[in-house]
Write a structure and sequence with these properties.
By secondary structure, the chain is mostly beta strands. 14% of the residues lie in helices and 49% in strands. The chain has helices spanning 2-31, 111-116, 250-255, and strands at 40-41, 52-64, 67-78, 87-93, 98-103, 105-108, 127-133, 141-150, 153-165, 170-173, 185-186, 197-207, 210-219, 228-235, 238-243, 245-247, 267-273, 280-290, 293-305.
Amino acid sequence: MKNKKRIIIYSGLALLFVIFLFSANYIFNVLIRVDKEAKLVTMSLPAETGKIRYGIDLVKTEKLKWKKALYVNGWVFEENVNKDKRDVFMVLKNKMETLVFQVENNNFSRPDVSKGYHLVTGVNSHGFDVYIPMFRLKSAYYKIGFVIDDETGRYFSMSENELRILKDSVSLKMVKTVYQPVSQQVALNFQNATDKVSHSFDIVETKGQFLTAIGWGFIQGLAGKGLKFYVLLKKGDKVIAYDTKVQYRPDITKGFNKYGLNLDSTGFLARIPLQTLENGHYQFGLYIVAGDKNGMIYSKKSVDINK
């Protein structure tokens, strides 16, 4: 009888100890958030836009007081960025789960990134670092993505790059992918587009699910810095406009050197989803904005869409 009581007592103590450990782990890991620890957020991810570029310079494990954390340092920016203020979220995703962490420290100055990608808006705050609590990461690998939320909208992109987690180490498997921006349809007012434009559509092709247009353009008498380009597709009386990615074109500065203008940033790339177009014949045009000046011109280039 005494032995039975002892067994019950010891079992009860063991159970209480397990409960204590579980409670302590829950309290100290989940309920108590330490300084610098990234917050796990609930978010409905938008459709991928292909408008985000990023690089990761360092991944390692670090201690945040009593917690073990994954430290990630790098840079990220959204295409055509022109403001410093933004919210950044890191997405870690696999077949089992999708985790979204807020990146609070997201505006380090990284002029090297601006220079490397020929960004011409004057915004250099692309750097970030984040401490992700390791207890949140239950799997051995996650694919990496980012969400950027700014005054122009919310943008989301995933990659094939993979974060691998072992017991005592973390590593990053970089999968080389070709960056391919996706143009978005925009609403524009062309009424005051009166400035003269020089331009060329160098490449126009339909391949896979996209219509691609590559070329250059500038408003006569103005340098190329800060230009915004929109590719126009005209079908009858209907005109559709798409945003573009600025391309580095020092050959245009050289070709028009008689003007004495820096035209390096006058290239554009549009990658238009065919699903946004009806079947028919479209004429290409180009609309350029430079501050309070803007110009529009239609090209001899055209395309027939027959999906």
